[in-house]
Design brief:
This is VOC family protein. This protein is α/β, with parallel strands linked by helices. It contains two helices and seven strands; from the N terminus they run E-H-E-E-E-E-H-E-E.
Length: about 130
C-alpha cells in the first residue's frame, strides 16, 4: 500500500494574502481558488489549502525542501521583505542560516506567524 500526503489545511486570518505570500516567497505560481480555499501547489503533488478562521491561530511549522540553486533566490525574497529569520526553530539564532547536514536552512514567519522553513538537505541524511 502506498501512502502519500495529498494536502493540508493552513488556517489563516486572510487566506488569499497568506497563500500569495508563500507562493511569492517560494517562487511558485499564483495560488488557485478551490471553493473557499486558496491553494498553493508544490512539486511533489502536495497542496497547502489556506482557509479563513476567526479563531486564534496556533503556530504551525511547515518545512520546504528546495534545491541548493534556489536557496539564494528564496533567501533574497525573505531579506527583501525585511522578515526576521533564524537558523533554528527555537528562534535563538536570529539573522543566521544553518548548515545542517551539509545544506542550508532558514526559518521565517508567515503573515499569521506560522514558522516556515526552507532547507536544501533533509535533516538526518534521509533522502
Amino acid at each position: 500500500m502506498a501512502i502519500e500526503l495529498n494536502h493540508s489545511i493552513v488556517w489563516a486570518s486572510d487566506p488569499a494574502a497568506s497563500a500569495r505570500f508563500l507562493a511569492e516567497i517560494l517562487g511558485r505560481p499564483e495560488p488557485v481558488r478551490f471553493g473557499h480555499f486558496h491553494v498553493v501547489a508544490l512539486d511533489n503533488a502536495v497542496q497547502l489549502d489556506f482557509a479563513r478562521t476567526q479563531e486564534t491561530i496556533q503556530q504551525q511549522h511547515y518545512a520546504f525542501l528546495i534545491e541548493e540553486a534556489d536557496f539564494d533566490a528564496v533567501f533574497a525574497r525573505i531579506r527583501e521583505r525585511q522578515l526576521p529569520y533564524w537558523a533554528d526553530p527555537g528562534q535563538q539564532r536570529r539573522g543566521e542560516i544553518n548548515h545542517n547536514d551539509g545544506g542550508r536552512g532558514v526559518y521565517f514567519p508567515d503573515p499569521d506567524n506560522h514558522l516556515l522553513e526552507v532547507i536544501t538537505r533533509p535533516y538526518g541524511g534521509w533522502a
